[in-house]
Amino acid sequence: MPPLAGSRPRIGIVGSGIAGLRAAKAILRCEVDARIVLFGDEPHRTYNRPGLTKKRYPLTDSLDMMIAEDVKVAGAENDALTWRPGIRVETADLRDRVLRLSTGETFEYDGLVIAAGVRPRTSVRGNGECGLHTHRTLRGLGDARYIHHRFQASEKITIVGAGFVACELASLAKEYGCEVLMLEALRRGPFESILGERVSVALGRWLVQHDITFLTGESARELLCDLKPTHPGPPSDGSLFIEAIGSVPNVEWLHGNGLDLSDGVRVDEYMRVAPWANVYAAGDIARYPDPWTAGNLTRMEFWKNAIDTGDLAGRSLAASMGHGSVTSRIGYFPSMSTEVLGLRIQIAGNPRMSDAMEIVRGDLDRLDQGVLVAYLREGAMIGAAYMDKGARFNSDYIELLRSLRER
Q: Would you give the distance in Å from CA 183 to the centre of its chain?
């Protein structure tokens, strides 16, 4: 469906997170004379989601405003874009290039970027209350405001899960003075699916050393909550029960278009959603050919991945509309960092796909003194991790990264 003669083409971007914003900015840089519309289901423009779990705030009546100010993202004030906050895309007809919106409107597009991201996985439907707890997940700005208010009251907090969000929330809760219980029923410790059991168990010990009650396996399962009220009326103590057990790609609105939606949206190395013309995907939702393990597909939920894939999707879409050319395929170098109870954790490459690991420096029993780990696949290094309270082995870690990049 070509644009009407003399009219500007319309580009829809579903998702106003960092991947959607970076795609929009890339299209603008390519000087595509189009109307670019960003749809987001939150009532906010783009903000820094990872920042929601990073900082302790002073007790103040302006807490909500302080959080919003701290997570601002450069470029979100761009009014060259048409922002449609608080609007969901309910369905998409990729053949006729039509989006149906929660307002009842339709939006016809000439190009589309799918950057709808993910939502928290839950063991039950939605937030609610059982006989003991107030249940929450953390995804958006509203969730963060609520959780920070509760943390400031120095309450008892239960956190289910041991991934990045769970560990960062546990660390933050301890800073606020909360009593923290963490439950991980499926694994031995934090980040096991990425860093393996030995490192995961060591990180679990780190949590316990910092006065977090950390339970795994059956001990954790016994304390999980299924939201079934034990008696009528309000919760008996109303303590906060946060589920941070992973995420689910927001793909339901794309059903019926013949796409592979088994784990996000499958794309090629240019972020193109085959077989549809001028349709691309980026960010947490995109599953693309892994440049690190040939023949495999990967889906990453890191901030840098959203930036890199958003840029590529925007440039690819612009090229498909005759503006510039895309010569580089996805070459994303996975890297992320976090801090848990004072321990800096840095991860690069793709340790998840390794078949062996090697301690390069340090001792897993003394994480605070620095530990550097190499991850191997068929004898070749494909990932690295560095944990330290300082920067003792930083030069060695940089050397490992250089080796990874030169593979």
A: 21
Q: What would you report as the CA-atom Rg of the chain, rounded to the nearest whole angstrom?
A: 22
Contact 372, 359 (CB under 8 A): yes
Give the global pTM.
0.91
Peptide bond into 291 cis (omega under 30): no
Structure tokens at 286: 């995109």
Residues written for the chain: 407
**Which residue type occupies 236?**
S
349: part of which helix (H) or strand (E)?
Answer: strand 343-349
**Cα distance between residue 341 and residue 25, in whole Å:** 36
List Cβ neighbours of 366 (8 Å cut-off, separation of 6 or more): none
Q: Count H helices, E strands: the chain?
A: 9, 23
Using DSSP's 3-state secondary structure scheme, residue 194 falls into helix
Strand order through the sheet with 156-160:
133-136, 239-243, 156-160, 179-184, 213-216
What CA–CA distance (Å, rounded) separates 264 from 281? 10
Taking only the tens place, the pLDDT of each residue in 251-304 is 999 999 999 999 999 999 999 999 998 999 999 999 999 887 778 899 999 899
